[in-house]
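Lecture 7 notes: from sequence to structure.
We start with the chain below.
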Amino acid sequence: MLYLGCCILDADSGMLYLGCCILDAPADLSPVSLAGHVPCGLICHPDREHILYPLGCTVVIQHLDTKKQSFLHGHANNVSCVVVSRDGMDVASGQVTCIGFKADIILWDFPKQELLARLSLHKGKVEGLSFSPRGIYLVSLGGQDDGRVMVWDVSKREVVCGSPASPRSAGNANVVMCSSCRDEMFVTAGNFTIRVWELDTATKKIHPSECYAGQLRRITVCVQMTDDDDDFYLGTTSGDVLKVNTSSKVVTACGPQQKKFSMVSSSSVTPILSLSCSLLVTESRATCGRTITKRILRLTLFLRCQFLVSRS
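Predicted structure tokens for the same chain:
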């Protein structure tokens, strides 16, 4: 097993531990790491034999065993996001461009490593991309100067519909994530906004539902759906993780809980930049002759670091 960039958040103390380690790996296998400015930029392909990541105007595909690299060329400016469909057949990448100019989304055929289509509607920057569970739709989120969310038909290579991503009373949406089970549902979140969207295939319109967060005002930087779609989790710049119920559209939990009257400076806050499916585990360790059992929340941080590869 290879755990890349895994971090552990102690739910009791609120301490965040970072690290990169290899467990049960061959002696000749070295850690994989990526330093870059693209959130969730390091992606493990579903075949668990390749990784993908942006490098300037290109997307790099690297084989984990042979280290052989291939490159997807087509963008005229820096790549801002990359996503892979669940079956691994399609890859989508978005880019940054000058203000007022269209920022391309490129669909790639992964097996052939060829350009399939160029989708151009967003302006300035493509902030995020997400494939629906069966790969029927691709949802794209525009940057600050665009502010729109678009749904694309992957097979027809055309836009289905679009809408402003956030209400006027809120800030910009930063992240987008499709449902784990349904092709017609996805989530957007950002500066004081959390929305669950439904696609009406008959009218070709998308309808947002605002999520109620009470007095909580957070800036979301990552989102992760559970496998059954019952809930989704939001990572924030303040270090909190919000749990939202998909059906009721209500924030049902927020953690880790800070101790009452504790003094927390802004410099001690660690933003959660990426989330994997939340997993509560029990850890036992010996300290000063006694065993302490703690419940810890395993998270991943920075550039899709929930990356877990099974090696034969």
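Points to note: The radius of gyration is 20 Å. The longest strand covers residues 290-300.
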